Amino acid sequence: MSRNILIIAVTMLLPALCIAGVVDTYGEALTEGLEVTPIEEILEDPDAWAGKKVQIAGEVSGVCARQGCWIDITSPEDATLRVKVDDGVIVFPQESMGRQAVAEGEVEILDMEPDKYEAWLRHVAEEEGREFDPGEMGEGPYRIVRLKGLGSEIQGP
Hints:
The chain has helices at 2-20, 39-44, 46-49, 114-127; strands at residues 23-27, 53-63, 70-74, 80-84, 100-111, 143-155. A hairpin with a 6-residue loop joins strand 2 (53-63) and strand 3. It has one domain: CATH 2.40.50.200. It is α+β, with helices and mostly antiparallel strands. The radius of gyration is 19 Å and the shape is globular.
């Protein structure tokens, strides 16, 4: 009889597990109860968020091709925030592209001089396998707003 109950339980749970999909965790576990902050809110007033721990959610729209040391997460409203982790501590796989993710970390603002900002943009272009366009520089201020990543959950295939 207990075998029948086990078979029934597995039969009932299997569809739910398939629908939920697999979630891969990278780095630290996400803080339970920490609400997801819309990326747009962070980018609207980054100084108000600097140094605060947040969770963001959206689609993985970019992954570092060299060491997997960052992912870009884009919200449904098309706002994007980069999640940067220490090289080798967390490695995001290329297969994360297009999947849904929740990432947690501290909002970080990097203010740069024009020459440092240009060097950073050149580095990003190289990582992405494209030519650097000097038009990307803009007129300043030369500032990078990103999440210093602590952990993330990425929906599996």
